[in-house]
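Lecture notes, part 5. Sequence design as translation. It can be helpful to think of inverse folding as translation between two languages: the language of shapes and the language of residues. The source text, in structure tokens, appears below.
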């Protein structure tokens, strides 16, 4: 879905599937959330300024949950904007177009899936989003 994004051909995309067990959740919602994060990473990159531009996605099992990490070496998000990025209509930059709904939607989806999302970002270094989701079919403890 993202191969038609403007800078896609100039940015190295890395995907690592380290799942060691079956994982179950609402795959349509999860796809929307992950696609939004990857699209943002590509959209905000300037591959002409950074010939080593990359977006890396890693999915791995962690107990009876999974952890999805989406990391890039793009421009990063200024610290002053970081507490606001998951709010509806909030835009941390005017360099690119957008409605300010993408990260809000991601956050809402992850909450509906009973997961958590965290972001680490440094200007001129890059951004990393970490999503943790419970396995919907995993047995409940203490039952």
């Amino acid at each position: 879905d993202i191969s038609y994004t403007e800078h896609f051909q100039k940015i190295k995309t890395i995907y690592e599937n380290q799942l060691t067990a079956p994982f179950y959740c609402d795959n349509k919602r999860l796809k929307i959330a992950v696609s939004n994060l990857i699209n943002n990473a590509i959209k905000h990159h300037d591959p002409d300024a950074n010939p080593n531009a990359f977006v890396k996605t890693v999915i791995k099992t962690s107990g009876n949950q999974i952890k999805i990490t989406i990391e890039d070496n793009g421009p990063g998000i200024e610290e002053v904007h970081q507490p606001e990025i998951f709010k509806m209509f909030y835009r941390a930059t005017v360099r690119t177009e957008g409605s300010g709904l993408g990260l809000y939607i991601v956050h809402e989806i992850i909450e509906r899936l009973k997961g958590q999302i965290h972001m680490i970002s440094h200007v001129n270094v890059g951004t990393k989003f970490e999503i943790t989701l419970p396995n919907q079919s995993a047995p409940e403890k203490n039952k």
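The translated text above is only one of many valid answers, since several sequences can fold into similar shapes. The helical segments are 27-44, 102-112.
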